[in-house]
Amino acid sequence: MEMAVGSHPTSKFTPKALLLSSTNVEPTKSNSIYTSSWLKRQFLGSPLSIRTKAKSSRIPLRSSVKCSVSQATDAATEKKSQLIRRNDIRNIAIVAHVDHGKTTLVDAMLRQSKVFRDNQFVQERIMDSNDLERERGITILSKNTSITYNDTKINIIDTPGHSDFGGEVERILNMVEGVLLVVDSVEGPMPQTRFVLKKALEFGHAVVVVVNKIDRPSARPDYVINSTFELFIELNASDEQCDFQVIYASGLKGKAGLSPENLAEDLGPLFEAIVRCIPGPQIAKDGALQMLATNIEYDEHKGRIAIGRLHAGILRKGLDVRVCTSEDECRFGKVSELFVYEKFSRVPAETVEAGDICAVCGIDDIQIGETIADKTSGKPLPTIKVEEPTVRMAFSINTSPFVGREGKYVTSRNLRDRLYRELERNLAMKVEDGETSDTFIVSGRGTLHITILIENMRREGYEFMVGPPKVINKKVDDKLLEPYEIAIVEVPEEYMGPVVELLGRRRGQMVDMQGTGSEGTTLMKYKIPTRGLLGLRNSILTVSRGTAVLNTIFDEYGHWAGDINTRDQGSLVAFEDGTSTSYALASAQERGQMFIGPGVDVYKGQIVGIHQRPGDLSLNVCKKKAATNVRSNKEQTVVLDTPLDYSLDDCIEYIQEDELVEVTPSSIRMSKNPKLIKKSR
Description:
By secondary structure, this protein is an alpha+beta fold. 22% of the residues lie in helices and 30% in strands. The strands form nine sheets. Strands 12, 13, 14, 16, 17, 18, 19, 21 and 22 form a nine-stranded antiparallel β-sheet that branches. A seven-stranded mixed β-sheet has the order 5-6-4-7-8-9-10, with helices on both faces. The relative contact order is 0.09.
């Protein structure tokens, strides 16, 4: 932006009460809506002064949303475009940073809208239906549900909070007219908050800000609102978008209100804000049929199911349609079954009118981003665009001596088919053939993005090997550019020194540092190369005694930062094939920390521990105590240290250029790459 928010003498994080008292003009409040236009004038003078050159390049607004008390729309614009607005439906996405309480808030909304029976058992975070989501406590896939409030149907889409799954959020925003931006009452806007808000504003969506977890003892709603408002200005939001409604809520208790001190006994104020501030879908009811496939699901009996919002026309069961990728690429299909979302399930429907979100069966080869259009006069909608991947990993068939012991699918054909099938649903991922016929290069938004795919494949019975993560560099004007990310680290003050030193070694540049209140923690903001983040999570937890919280998001491509050493220690490598013994491990553990215990089958080249010095060391962990005919009064008691238990994520963080992770349904092992060892000789 041409004018920074901090240029005003008022402090960047001035609490609302101080901010309001810094002028003689008394701001107006309308139904407890935060008077953002008034604040904008305090920060930047006239609202006109926030107009920047960047504004002209933004996607034009679909509607002009003014949420003061009533929803006002520009009638002239609607008349000109011959679009009408449905007032009986609201399509919203719930977006936020990870762990700010999206899924818990959806749980409370479902319970209070009587989706479940009073005596029905409902598990916690019901929208996280995937096994992996439940184990990790995160949302990975976006999911649809709907509730009814005062004769208004509200279609709700729960989205992931991790930046690695940002592709899910980007395509979901095509289906909705507004978003609930959930912000933690202590942390305030975080990296992923910025990313999802930027995308929502580019689409011209209306935003309702929900300050969640307001019942936390250290909650600071004034700071959170001021920070969120500054974020709107930084992202070049329009005046109408900056007039956002603020709702204070506790998703866990199922309460919401228009002020933090006065919460209602239910989420009524939140539902009212959604109906009043989020506009209904703008549709061409009599126009030619148009529906963009935004999500794909698979059912064993029904086959592929395309999910999306109907933009124009009426869709009927049994209708012949045209499926278009572009103007030139079209094919024909037939809708065999049609479903809409009601409460927590899909309900069969005969017809669906424009503006509603529906699921379509019968088109077996439909892909995300294709348009289901009228058979005679249908035209495709713009395809979905997502940001480019930044990290890649090499997948190859398992070449260890233990191949085929545990896995069901072990050939390169099995691996290839599964990886290319993932592309049908995962838009932000790319798969390319590698240098050899049994190697494939998988690119994604981050290490977690690809690790989730590896874990899913492992559970499906696949056996394969993966190499270390590498960043995807670019060359512009013969200059090498690499991806940089914004890292926000929250750490107690006593561990600040080691954390700052660690990030400095990883070529990180500190951008900002501030205290976060009474909890004695410091928030540090860094700009750091993506290479520096590989393997950082375990290191930062070690130096901070497990207390640091690290959040990252892609920022931009910048100049090559130079060499980065991500690991100071070498590996302990098995010397021969066999079964590990207590006798051998007793002497081996003096060389470093072990990954294995006694009685474990190992093979030559397998990594069995971390060396305490730089450089690798070969060990014989299968050596047995020599038997003699000399009697001894007592066998020597061997005390072994507890071996390190590394998860899949830990192993991928640990390995370096000449190492591989062997993934099977039952085991995760690490080994030296035999191809690179031969080359080095």
